[in-house]
Amino acid sequence: MSAAPFPVATFAAISEDPVTDELAAKFQVALDDLVGSDGFGEEGGMTATVMTAEGTWSGTVGEADGVRDLQVDDQFAIASITKSVIAAQVMSMVEAGELGLDDLVADHLPRDLQFDTNGATIRHLLSHRSGIPDNYEVLSVALQRDLLRAWKPAEALELVPTGRVVAGRSFEYAENNYLLLGLVIEQVRGRPLAEVLREGVLAIDGVERLVYQPDERPSEPMAMPRGQSTAVLELGGGYLPSLAAVTAFTASGAFASDSPSLARWWRAFCAGEIVSQATLTEMSDFDPDVSSFDGGYGLGLFNPAYGYARAVGHQGELFGYMSWAACLPEDGAVIVVLSNRVVHELSVELFFRPIRPFVDVLRSG
Question: Domain spanning 8-364 has what CATH number?
Fold first, then answer.
């Protein structure tokens, strides 16, 4: 049985007019309570945006840098939510006939790149079923040695373990999959990824502060990782969280954004304004055989509200930042939560918690 068409009309009906004062107050209480709940540390804060047909709200709680309170337009590193933007760009190129989901990745990479792609296809990379192991842990350690190092893709790929499993057989979340997709996009278009994105899936109004680093720089105001002093920004070369991180993770985690810009992007995406309804339906057809993402994983998407709401979106975590973004068809809402608070241990419960307080407000009337 084919999946039901993605409900684009639900998100096309969303309004950017302000919500009522009463609803705004309820959302702010939900954000305050979320920051004060178990699991999050005491340094930094959070910002959130909720978009519905009744209107849009954005709010903040906590500090940006140990001195200044967070503002709605503070930029945060959004880490792996980057993957959804990259997946949308790939799928728009599939729609245009520039790529095929079942094309071999090796056929669309630079010829001088010496890397075993394991016979994986574009679809395998999008769905984390390439059979190529992850290098996140070893790469993360290497990045901390020199925050100002500008990594090249080939250097990051050198840290990928040599073992492989059969492509398509099983799910393994791996940063390398999206690093490779970034290279594919550049190879096919013959242009830097940042330019392709800005003229492609970022060519919508109101997302100027959704920036692809390092080609596009974040700008004030900015939330510092873990709520640290602004001195940490210079240590990282002026990037969130650092030049080393954004050049090593590139298409798997280099974006920074404020919450309103990110929410606008997700509204447009889920309204079918970036890729077609048919493509959205395919991307959000989650594979249930994915134990580490309890609701399944699709093509650059999963459900970050698993267990209490039907949603499509993504979550991110990187060196002092955490982020959540979700489109909720049954609730008619887009919800984005960005954090620069320390999380000592990311449990499954905490992983899926931050969207819930806002869903509860919407459902309470």
Answer: 3.40.710.10
